[in-house]
Write a structure and sequence with these properties.
Layout (H helix, E strand, L loop, with lengths): L7 H7 L6 E2 L2 E3 L5 E4 L2 E14 L7 E10 L4 E7 L5 E4 L3
Antiparallel strand pairs: 1-7, 2-3, 3-4, 4-5, 5-6, 6-7
């Protein structure tokens, strides 16, 4: 049975898709990750920066990295330049 999408309980249980979660990242001097959650990074696939909502009191300034860990897992981590700290984020 599928829950009625208009039901408030369905929204609460679904949660946010792709919500950032805190991550433990060891970074090199240049800021790129060398380990994520105690797993060494085997390949740094891509890097990009996001600057959004710069006109508000809470701008978004993030430096993203797509990495492959030695376990073979692909993951995306970012450093939040506005609030500080590292986070992981996965697609839906």
């Amino acid at each position: 049975m599928v829950a009625d999408s208009r039901d408030a309980r369905a929204v609460r249980t679904a949660g946010r898709l792709n919500a950032p979660r805190p991550a433990r990242v060891e970074a090199r001097i240049d800021g790129s990750p060398c380990a994520v959650n105690h797993q060494p990074v085997a390949v740094l696939r891509e890097e990009w920066r996001v600057l959004d909502r710069w006109w508000t009191e809470e701008p978004v300034l993030r430096r993203y990295f797509e990495v492959v860990l030695e376990s073979g897992e692909n993951t995306v981590v970012f450093h939040d330049g506005s609030r500080g700290g590292w986070f992981s984020q996965r697609g839906a």
